[in-house]
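User: Sequence recovery, please. Input:
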């Protein structure tokens, strides 16, 4: 059940019998040859596919996040940490006020993880509130699947290249880009990051056969769905 395809009365009736929802967190940042909205697209879609058989509402992805290190790439938008923390808290407070108690955050961007303590503060402040923060792409089973398919995989490589993040009419580079270790990026500003990683792929093939990415997506969706179905107490 997508919030974008529902009216308020339908959500009110849903809340009479269930209090779960999915909140996707994305961002707008460079992804080499892929869409600048890749993280938002993936977070919302994995949440949607996971929740569909359960009838759990999925909110639109929060399209902006924390990505200051990519500000040398035009089209990237970043928020300040205080701004983002306040935004996430306001969203969670709104969900609680209207009747939601169990929130699965499906996060599509590693840079967003510093706001995870906000979810803990929210649970502490609101009786009965539960929140799970799920980095879908690096959850245990999903990451194990990535490693089985091709261990050289990272930001903007094949592991984020799906039909729904690919841009029509753009040709993908061939070959495997050498991996750039994350610790080499931590002491650089945005211009230094761009000088190090070039087009934005951190390392790996730009695209793999659909059978590989279909397999990865299936694991990711099932792992996400298990968090919705599992015990919340």
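Assistant: Recovered sequence (233 residues):
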């Amino acid at each position: 059940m997508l919030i974008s395809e529902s009216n308020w009365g339908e959500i009110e009736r849903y809340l009479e019998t269930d209090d779960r929802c999915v909140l996707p967190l994305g961002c707008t940042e460079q992804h080499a040859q892929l869409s600048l909205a890749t993280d938002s697209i993936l977070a919302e879609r994995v949440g949607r596919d996971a929740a569909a058989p359960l009838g759990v509402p999925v909110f639109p992805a929060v399209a902006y996040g924390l990505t200051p290190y990519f500000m040398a790439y035009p089209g990237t938008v970043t928020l300040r940490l205080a701004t983002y923390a306040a935004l996430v808290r306001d969203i969670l407070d709104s969900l609680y006020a209207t009747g939601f108690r169990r929130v699965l955050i499906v996060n599509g961007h590693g840079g967003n993880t510093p706001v995870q303590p906000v979810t803990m503060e929210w649970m502490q402040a609101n009786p009965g509130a539960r929140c799970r923060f799920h980095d879908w792409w690096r959850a245990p089973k999903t990451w194990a699947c990535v490693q089985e398919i091709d261990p050289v995989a990272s930001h903007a490589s094949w592991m984020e290249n799906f039909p729904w993040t690919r841009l029509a009419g753009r040709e993908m580079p061939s070959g495997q880009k050498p991996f750039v270790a994350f610790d080499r990026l931590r002491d650089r500003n945005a211009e230094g990051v761009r000088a190090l990683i070039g087009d934005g792929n951190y390392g790996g093939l730009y695209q793999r056969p659909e059978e590989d990415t279909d397999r990865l997506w299936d694991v990711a969706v099932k792992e996400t769905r298990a968090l919705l179905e599992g015990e919340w107490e």
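The mean pLDDT is 95.
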